[in-house]
Protein: SCP2 sterol-binding domain-containing protein
Organism: Sphingomonas chungangi
Amino acid sequence: MLHRRRRQEHAQCLLSNGAIVCAAGEHPDEDTLFAGSPDALAAVVYAYLPLADAEAAGSLRISGDGTLARRFVDLFSLPTPAPKQIASSDFGKVGIGKD
């Protein structure tokens, strides 16, 4: 059971058998607690800010199972962004523009 607390709003996520279910509410027996703003958690999850850096900055506090916290964050990694622009000279290379 993972739990995130923001001000007085609570959300809990249960990881079980390869599935994740999240709902509003508080669970007294969480294994890991993330306390901080949604932006702080998003910086860790999507901007690859290390958990330790977020904790050191005071933007996110994690209590409980640290290994589980890292595993939870890793569930949401984003793919590498596509290039912003493809030059016309690149068409035909590496499958670009090929049928």
